[in-house]
Amino acid sequence: MVDFKKSKMNGFSYKEWNDYFSRNDKQKLKIDFSQEENLSETVKKRIFPSIREFQRGEGSDGGYLMKTVECFAVRHKVPEYKGAMRWFVREENQHSTYLKTYMDFHHIQAKESPFLDRVFRKLRHLGGIRCEVTVLVTAEMIALTYYDALSKNTDSAVLKSICAQMLHDEIPHVMFQSYTLSHFKNNLPDKWIRIILMEATLLFVWGAFHNVYRAGGYDFGTFLKENMGYLHQSMELTDRKPVMPG
Ligand SMILES: [Fe+2]
Ligand SMILES: [Fe+2]
């Protein structure tokens, strides 16, 4: 499991997050299909239902999100947050494109409106930025075990490179969102909401995609332990005082 406490990004202000995202944008993945072989039907049946779900979940136009970002930036006097979130949305859309490119190569159609994506979008729109970020970071923590497991499902160098890029980008995302949540008071009921949301989502994800996790070396116990471990790390980060602009 990744230890967030060891990362220097923990102390980042929004100005530093802006700088990080703009640097990271220059390191996009170059996907090379020249060595890619066809996957067996068994592997395709195992991996693509979840890839289609995650492909849709990664993409967003960010319209509603950016309205809530604007309010937060004004209230907390952090105008740099708007730029950082624009970079973030751009990076997530790039993730969606990576997965779509892989699906296209294997002639897999995108999913119109996957169940989990619909539920998450509804939940995100229930409240302001805090609600948005709480839901987003839950999905991003689960993505850490998902892309780790997915990369071990095939010998495809392309899929492994996509999963490695996702993990490289999603780990900072969890720290970035946790930093935003640290601007709010995080009382016990707030923590319980995060725990319940995480547990409910984990049950759905395991129920729907346990074959991918099992083939990637996870059983339900390790899946649960690792994801809840990430949640506890994120909650520790939200208990820190935010870096004041200046
Ligand atoms: Fe992503
Ligand atoms: Fe992300």
Q: What does this 3D model show about the protein?
A:
With 246 residues, the chain is mainly α. It has one domain (40-238): Ferritin, core subunit, four-helix bundle (Ferritin). The chain is 70% helix and 0% strand. The protein is built from nine helices and no strands. Helix 2 runs antiparallel to helix 4 (80-105) and helix 6 (129-151) runs antiparallel to helix 7 (157-181). The longest helix is centred in the last third of the chain and has 28 residues, at 188-215. It is globular, with a radius of gyration of 18 Å. The two termini are 34 Å apart. The model has no long low-confidence stretch (mean pLDDT 93). The chain binds fe (ii) ion (2 copies).
Task: Report the CATH C-level class.
Answer: Mainly Alpha
> β content, as a range?
under 5%
Tell me what the CATH architecture is. Up-down Bundle
Structural class: mainly alpha
Helix content: over 70%
Task: Report the strand count.
Answer: 0
Question: What is the molecular shape?
Answer: globular
In total, how many domains does the architecture comprise? 1
Protein name: Ferritin-like domain-containing protein
Organism: Parablautia intestinalis
GO molecular function: oxidoreductase activity
InterPro entries: Ferritin-like_SF (IPR009078), RNR-like (IPR012348)
What's the short version?
The protein has helices at 14-24, 41-58, 63-75, 80-105, 115-124, 129-151, 157-181, 188-215, 220-238.
